Target: Ribonuclease Z
Amino acid sequence: MSARDLVVLGSASAVPTRFRNHNGYLLRWDGHGLLFDPGEGTQRQMTLAGVSAHDVTWICVTHFHGDHCLGVPGIVQRIARDGVPHPVHAVFPASGAVYWERLRHATAFVDTAVIDERPVSGDRAEIAAGPFTLTARRLSHPVESYGYRLEEPDGVTMLPAELAARGVRGPLVRRLQQEGRVTTRGGRTVTLEECSVRRPGQKVAFVMDTRLCDAAFELADGVDLLVIESTFLDEDAALAAEYGHLTAGQAGRVAARGGVRRLVLTHFSERYRTDDEPRFAAQAAAAGFTGDIVVAHDLDRVPLPRRRRAPAGGGRADG
Model:
């Protein structure tokens, strides 16, 4: 089975600690690897996590504060050094193009031609990305910052009992999937709707540095996995608002309203101690979120929840 999971490469905010590296998140998705916000030290964290430059097919930068992008030079140079042959698409705010250029060519090295730059601008941008769509939405932060949403199209799950009852077997099954309608040897016309249920595509959202805003709620709506900053605890909400960040409770509120299935809290301020960690999860839950909560740690691997499957009679259910 193809892997779909999140590899946490770093979970600190502006200042790394003894236990938390700067940001870095690799979303593995059926042979694609989306590297979000590679902060300082990401290249080494990838080695510790057992992933390589060859696993990276996308680099997505939310904004150009150092803890979200200072790892770009090392990643790009590693891609070049290791001879990665496939395109690596780079998505970043167009307003920060000067910073991207400085990071992209930070030092002398034998360059690579595989980096495909795709700057985004405006309040919303949608990027066709093969098996999924990548949507960028502008957030609320002192510098221009974007959140990202990855979404695959809905599919179908075939129902063997219904196929057998209608005499659809062998090559006819594939034709039914492709064409939506087949005629059996007995002359019966069978439709795809009779023999399948809708399989909702999986969705993941990354919401990094931002205050509460409509875009954060839109990105999180209906996703299976939400990776979201929770820089501060709720008692420090004034600081969060001043610096353009979320509290744990606010992150929980975004997840609750969106019906998120698994919530990953990350980007923690260095002001908090290890024994404060349970409070982040508790405050997210107190905001009304009742799904799975993961307080991220470096080198964690967080699987996507199992696929949802719509029952034959309509509606949605986990499958």
